Amino acid sequence: MYRHSISRQLIDICAKLTQEAYKNVTSRSGDVLVSDGLQRLSSIDTARNVSNGPQPISTGVNQLLDRMETIENTGQVAGLQTGIRKLDGILGGFGEQKFYLLAGRPGMGKSALALQIAGNIAQKGSGVLIFSLEMTEDDISARLMSSLCGVPYDTFNKGNVGDNWKVILDAGARIAELPLEIDATPALKISTIRSIAQKAMLSNQIGLVIIDHVGIARPERPGGNPYQNASDKADAVMALPKQLGCPVLALSQLSREVESRADKRPQMHDLRDSGKWEENADVVMFLYRDEFYNDDTDLRNMAEISIRKNRGGKRGIASVYANIATNRFCDLTTERATYE
């Protein structure tokens, strides 16, 4: 029945588009018609957002026991491991159908941390799909390669590579083999992101979806106020993990109010535009680097990943090594983030 519903929606939209194309062949440009058509097609609910009906409690008990047995047998966390042991120790890895929000002020290194996690996960064989609403594919490639080979990120844009060509080429070859996919289309709606992700999952095994960043995703309903737009996006992102069957890591900017305080470590009320982000996320993480604000700090090349909300788990702070010049994040005990 659900499959037939999708077919009926598709037939209806295509029929209407055909009629409009004949009617407006002289009054509307082709690119406007194509854009309108794509928008309508992306609105088709392919999310399988359909109830499976009530399930006996034994289903949940069996799933829990299976997960506990896996932890016991492997000695590893149950979720998708981020590759940062301190973070995994608090979170237990990324849960299969959970929404993770990583927030921080501009320049803190949110994208660098997210890409480090993506590289770590991809190296272990799990596919990662990145929606980059800000950066291009080559920007992301440069960051990943910088993290791997240790050549500063800005070197990739200056042309003074010098003796670093070999390590850069080696890093590029290794990154190119990872199961990473990037969609760098700007201003996507969350519903469009969902549709693209579902299509990608038909041909690839995707273990994690990353959205960088949700603040610049296009509102579903044009003309709304900032609070309503942010709330709508928060609701849509919250639904994604269950719709896609994998964890979703969404990045977000924090309010400028952080800058007005003496202690600039983020708080929950610093989340921008809507309290729905705090309410909807399974896990809320804040990224803070003291050296960003204090030149004379003793905490150079260090970052705090503060887990302020962890539904069903503990909160805490993961203090990690952070080298923004090379986009590296890792445990303090290793002080380097290379793929094994």
UniProtKB/TrEMBL annotation:
One of its GO terms (cellular component) is cytosol. Residues 73-336 form the SF4 helicase domain. SMART domains: AAA (SM00382). Keywords: Primosome. This is SF4 helicase domain-containing protein. Pfam families: DnaB_C. It comes from marine sediment metagenome. GO terms for molecular function: ATP binding; DNA helicase activity. PANTHER family: REPLICATIVE DNA HELICASE, REPLICATIVE DNA HELICASE DNAB.
